[in-house]
Amino acid sequence: MRSGLRPIYQFDSCSIKYQKLKITEVISLNLHNQDVKCARSKGTAIVKEISAKATLSLGERISRQPFTVSTDGTNDAGCHKLYPLVIKSVNPDTLEVSSEILSIPICEGSSTGENIFNLIEAEFKAHKIPWENCLALGADNAPVMVGRDKGVYGHMSRKNPSIFMSEESASTSATAKEKTGRLKKLFASRTNQLICKFLVDALEPFDAINTELQSDASKIHVLQQRLEKLIKQLMVKFVQPAVFQRDGIFANLEKENLRQSSDIIIGKAAAEFIAQEKSKMKESRLSEFFDAARDFYVTSITYLRAKLPLKNDVYSHAAVINPANQLTCQFQSVEFFIKRFPVLLPPNASLHDLQLEFATYQCTDIASCIEERMDKTWASISRLTEGQEPIFKLLPQVMLHLLTIPHSSAHCERIFSLVRKNHSEFRSRLENSTMEALLIAKSRPGSAGDRDYSKEELSELKSAYHRSLKN
Questions:
Q1: Where are the domains of the chain?
Q2: Per-residue CA distances from 96 to 323, 335, 412, 445 (Å)
Q3: Among 7, 121, 292, 399, which has the highest number of CB atoms less than 10 A from its own CB?
């Protein structure tokens, strides 16, 4: 059986008891007790029913609380493109930040900023989602997305002037790595082995930050710090120490501010290679190598400083979310976000109330609340009590909603990769609506096998096929 057909076609030969499709696993076991058979058509109807309920639940949630939306397009059959709308929000039951698909609308015709925006707005209207609740747009750096006039962001900002454009830092650092990698052409000589050893060390900082930014857990609270660290890791290798101490990561890269060739840090392996092979290498080759190494660093820093959001107020103030900065961050950072996104403050709360909670937070021992994921940390902080009363009622909610702001598009791309080609050779007959239903159900947080359904829900799912025939 071809893997591309398994999600729906495996229903054909199985009773509901033995199906292994995780998104219908629990339903399968429960409905088996009622002797319900489930072939392909009935299985499709059940999956669509599950996804419809999931979409309705998600739509109701984000109509009442802050969230962010991310999207990207993929080529479909003909001239159509699919635009999965990935919502990042706080689950009110678990207080965890998660990403879920709201829908996968089809853009027919040109994928202009206006047309893509219209797809998003249509979904917002269908679920009565106020634009004020949308904190940010997550997308790649294509002009059709980030354009302030005709791009999707431009159209969204006219609906909500405070909306934030989450810039794609992960792809920027990856592109910088690619651009500098092209300098290998300069090294087409007998020094290739030396060059390879140099590149292994020089590219390591790019790999490290790209790996971290692919994390499913929110990293907005450390993004500014990580980006500055990347710049510093590269600059200390070729910029004079006195210049860097004086001007930091924005130091001028004129030649007089750079280290001498013999003082450039090229990595342990490359340095050892030179020490062992120097007598066999021409001096001109070594000079060419150090010049190219310096060009590598200069090109990297020039590109990164031009493209990365190193002076972005949102990312800078987001450090207040990190408990590691509990004693050093100021309330002004929290106030910045409340002014930028008024929806963060509940109608019955005041800025003064929030300031008192922040002051209390700074004076509270939260060591027992620290978790690996920042959303779980703030969920633990929200459960701290004094007597029978919670210590914090406002601050954790504000911090959790801020964690929905994307630090990269990785959360969207993970979901989006499942639908790179809707009509592939393995899924030529899979309808858009069926694929959308599968992915919506799959994108829900947690394991599908752990989901519980009430008797009423099971009864509705049992009759889903009959309702689908009427429609």
A1: 3-167+406-470, 170-307, 313-402
A2: 17, 23, 17, 9
A3: 399
